[in-house]
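All the exercises in this workshop are built on plain-text protein records. There is nothing in a record beyond a sequence line and a structure line. A learned vocabulary of local backbone shapes supplies the integers on the structure line. The question running through the whole workshop is how a given chain folds. Here is such a record, shown just as it appears in the course material:

***
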Amino acid sequence: MGKNYTRVSEFVIVGFPSLQPEYFVLVAWFFFFLYVTTAVGNLLLVVMFTLERSLHEPMYIVMVSLALSDIGFATVALPKLIARYWWNDGSLGFHTCFFQMHMIHYFGSLNSLILLTMALDRYLAICFPLRYPTMMTNQTMAGLTLFCWGIAHIFPGISTISFTLMPFCGPNKIIHAFCDTMSLKSLVCVDTSRQYSLAFASAMFILYVPLAFIIFSYICIVISVLRMAKGQGRMKTFSTCATQGCIISIYYIPRFFVYVTPFIPNLTMTPDKRIATTIFYSLFPPVINPFIYCLRTKEIKQIFRRWLQKRKVIHHPLLLF
């Protein structure tokens, strides 16, 4: 006869377990600022892409895809965390928690695939400049983008379904900023080593297979630039690659340590450090992506200047005469 379990009906987001209550409002304002900055910055990019037909090119399609993904992740992850520290409301329904877990891992997987697509686009543009216009059309990039948004559900979906079927019979406090596989694993009443190993393998596959191609593509780009480019063009290409390399490093390296720590003997992370590391690699790139990928782009700078000049003309019509 199997054991009888009392089903957990809701979970509670604890956040940083060592954080003192007097700092709750300050932390809530910090995460609120992060959310507004992420949403406004990335939404501005989406609006600009919609209004400016000159930006309807493959490179900007993938940038908009990344912006929408960043808005989605911030919207899934931050409102409940803000509510936990602003109104001491960290409760989430059972199925709501699993939905959040799925979407958290979904947007993480999606970002990995988008970075892969972005690297592919740059690889073709720099290494095959003559064939690029026919190889990477707007329709091709749109198809790749939709494919990424669809296939990114597969691995998180497998993990979510397997954990949904697990019995949760006791503690319901999630020592994390949001529901995810690692935090829910410790609340299951039975051995979860098989499910966690499956989730870990899936995460490593969706994260580091794209990373392998990204590294390969950038090596090819560097070799191609060293052979062909001269002077300022070479420095501009290297600057773009270095900028994207920083974002990729921020996205992948901390995530790797968080996932690998449980498997390395004598290597542990305190809950506060693990949460801080997760928040850093999850929320820092969405905040700065609009500035790094877009505001440093010549075409977008020109559009901003044109918009600002129109505002000056509207507010000061005498400048026309």
